[in-house]
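Supplementary Text 2. Reproducibility record for the structural model of the 576-residue chain.

All settings were left at their defaults, and a single model was retained for analysis rather than an ensemble. We include the record here because the model underlies the residue-level annotations in Supplementary Table 4.
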Amino acid sequence: MRFRGIAIVFTLLPLLLGPAVSSEISRPNILFIAFDDLNDWIGCMGGHPQSVTPNLDRLAANSVLFTNAHCPAPACNPSRTAIFTGIAPNQSGMYDNAQKMREILPDEVIIPEHFRKHGYRSIGSGKMLHYFIDAPSWDEYFPEAESENPFPRTLYPDKRPLSLPRAGPWQYVKTDWGPLEATDEDFGGDWLVTDWVGKQLLQEIDEPLFLACGIYRPHEPWFVPRKYFEPFPLEDIQIPPGYKEDDLGDLPPEGKKRGPNRYFAHIQKEGQWKNGIQGYLASIHFADAMLGRVLDALEKGPNRDNTIIILWSDHGWQLGEKQHWQKFSAWRQVTRVPLMIKVPPSVAPGLPDGTKAGDVCVRPVNLLSLLPTLTDLAGIPEKEKAEAPSLVSLLKNSEAEWNHVAVTYLSDRGSFAISDEEWRYIRYSNGEEELYFIPEDPYEWTNLANDSKQKDRLEYFREISPKNFAPKREATVDSLGSITWNPLNGDNVPPSRPDGATFKVPFLNNRNQTVELFWIDQQGKPKSYGEITGGKSREQQTRPGAVWQVSDAATGTPLGFFRIGDRRAKAVVPAE
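Retained model, structure tokens:
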């Protein structure tokens, strides 16, 4: 395969690009690089003093680094859907990870397909969308697009959990960490993704190329080869700079509810806080090394002078700040993400002079702007539904006038955060508010929403707040994963150990005969919840750790049981 100009977009990776390209090239190549769950813990953003990220830093030194960039949503699915469609969550109705993009937006054209329609070859590898590839939108993918599985083989410990015991069925099975006795190649995963991407960059290109590279780390679980743990001795680990033990007193009730979570409390109880920080730093270090392989391939190959690089992360991560572990919140540690853009001179129709190496932009921008920025740079038609402004004016002049704010939408319809150049405003769907002045309070320790001096500031943010929110549509039963069916052969059914928030589970009876559904209580005693006719289904409110027994309604014979996991899925009673 031969390629010709390339515009490269990297999700959280700064890239070195060289001198001007030949005038015969009409369109740049694009390298689109995404990191998963990467916050500001990289050297050039100073989020943690112990981070080791030489390749992200080298890309930043040769790019425009946006230090006030924010994600469309603090979760993978709605954030990536918004980035790839150009449609904000409040317009699409895509608010959380449980929804399915192609059920909400069945016909929407995403970035690679839009570029294909305008003369580009679109190829990619790794996680770009939320655990699927969307095969029709690409010319080529690794792993095979038809598999709809974006992950190549990846090494994990034989016995899990390795470091963090599971506290209950509510706990995400991937919340775990530790070093692996393996080489990068043995590990696979991001090494295989960047190996494939690097090989594409080393080839001559005879048509414009859109090349996507999804680097999965530092997404959980934080297992990487041991050498990436070694720069971070456990005894030297520093807790997050943004952590403050008494940082909850001035939050409204909704903020207090969303701050402390069971993960952080469990991690502290198990004495694993510094181990978890070590695992996150090691995973970032590993992801940075994988980025370096891609940047090196670009530098060594024939396409370094005609490739645009865009690097971003879908959202950040909290490691104890506000007593919170994970993402899903509206605070800056989660919404603010790395964004780097490198445009060589004489390559992009929309920016013929290219970008200035080492430039830093503090204007508030949103990753929704990536799609219009790409089309602007490449000189192809805009996508009609793209809602955000192009960043090209800021790539020309990082201090240009910018009358925009960045909005991040939470999973519950009507909750959001707004970032401008100095202030952050959080509004929950029940009307409760938070307000922070970032130059003096970068870690959002002092909520000014109740300060009478900030009345006009609050009115300003209320005025510019989004007013319309599309309805939230749940995933269909067909698209849900399946809960394991455990057949019974005279064995005892285990008791329920319910622990976690309630949600609805659809029970589908694929047998011809009617079955009866029983909840098994904590003492192992069954309680009937009614019958399900053959070929029919019903939804049942339940919790993680609950056990549901299915019996033949006519004979009373127990047939099997389901143990509910940490998220909504379907329980299918198999045919005989």
